[in-house]
Write a structure and sequence with these properties.
This protein is α/β, with parallel strands linked by helices and about 230 residues long. Among the domains are: about 50 residues, no CATH class; about 110 residues, Zincin-like. It is built from 6 helices and 11 strands. The strands form 3 sheets. Strands 1-2-4-3 form a 4-stranded mixed β-sheet, covered by helices on one side. α3 crosses α4.
Length: about 230
């Protein structure tokens, strides 16, 4: 992370376009591809200054009311992220929509918005239902284990489960975990299609389809801090 005058620059190998976000401390951060000419960022920042100041004011207003304002959704499990944009348009009916490929927009009268996490969680659950189902389908074809269905919920105590009828239930919070841990949870539940227990046979199967299963299961117990506080 390089700091330049009024903003910071983060070079990301996977970035295909320039993005601008405001972090919790109010710092403006550009994320750019490795080959991008950073000399152009100063002019771009000037163009976006009104938006930057608006976001900082909104953040200050929400923080003053005792809530954390989510500004970034870092969804490691599906290797993507979304900047959260707040638009105080005076509407009495708060609403949420996806903007471009990496933007989620919350609109409404800030004073009536209430807790923004409610709307964000609703959007996340819809997004997780699509993306985690896709991830299950990919892992199923790779390990040759197929559930009868997949549902996505917001469980507080477990990452996933498998019913006796062969249906998987996954926690939408999996989106915030690294890819290998999200796949571990899915593989774990897929193996329950064969062994509805945690017997030696179950672990033998899990380690066959996921060789680092025991080591990563220990890692899984230490990653709760990757899930943002507002979604807990």
């Amino acid at each position: 992370m390089d700091e330049v005058a009024n903003f910071k620059v983060r070079v990301h190998g996977g970035a295909r376009r320039i993005t601008l976000r405001i972090d919790r401390e109010g710092a403006a951060i550009f994320t750019v591809p490795p080959q991008y000419d950073r000399s152009q960022l100063e002019a771009l920042f000037v163009e976006q200054r009104t938006w930057v100041e608006q976001q900082r004011r909104l953040q200050a207003q929400v923080s003053a009311r005792g809530r954390e304002l989510p500004l970034l959704l870092d969804l490691r499990a599906v290797s993507t992220h979304f900047n959260v944009i707040y638009r105080d348009d005076g509407s009495t009916q708060p609403r949420i929509r996806q903007g471009d490929a990496h933007t989620v927009v919350l609109c409404g009268d800030l004073e009536r918005l209430g807790d923004p996490s409610r709307l964000l969680c609703e959007w996340l659950k819809r997004y997780a239902r699509s993306e985690l189902t896709r991830l299950v389908e990919r892992r199923s074809s790779e390990v040759n284990l197929y559930p009868r269905g997949v549902s996505v919920r917001s469980q507080r105590t477990r990452w996933g489960s498998c019913s006796s009828s062969g249906r998987l239930s996954l926690n939408m919070r999996l989106l915030f975990l690294p890819v290998h841990l999200a796949e571990l949870v899915i593989d774990h539940e897929l193996c329950h299609l064969v062994h509805m227990n945690h017997s030696a046979a179950f672990w033998d199967l899990l380690e066959l389809v996921h060789p680092q299963a025991r080591l990563e299961t220990k890692e899984l117990k230490r990653v709760s801090d990757l899930v943002p506080a507002w979604i807990r």
